[in-house]
Amino acid sequence: IIILMEKLKCDFNNIIEKEENNVFLSQKQKIKLLRDVISGLQYLHNNNIAHLDIKLKNILVNHDLSIAKICDFDISAKLKNGETHKTMSAGYTPLYCAPEQIRNNE
Question: Most buried by CB count within 10 Å: which residue of 75, 78, 80, 100?
Fold first, then answer.
């Protein structure tokens, strides 16, 4: 199996660091990137896929900072009909996960 992927410039975490160094995105650019992420999440949820590790480093942006895409589906899960959540035993990022994920793993 060969998986061919496009190369994107950086992740959202890099963009935040750039803003700290006085390289700013316009509000219009930020809204566009946020809409891309929301659109991606909506697509996943409409197809019963839970990403389970959404964080700044898992959102990639293209070279001119005009398109954002969700990446890193290592721990994502395809939910079965009627299933509303997936309890994880490992693999999540504690600083970005929902409190109930931590409570379920204690």
Answer: 75
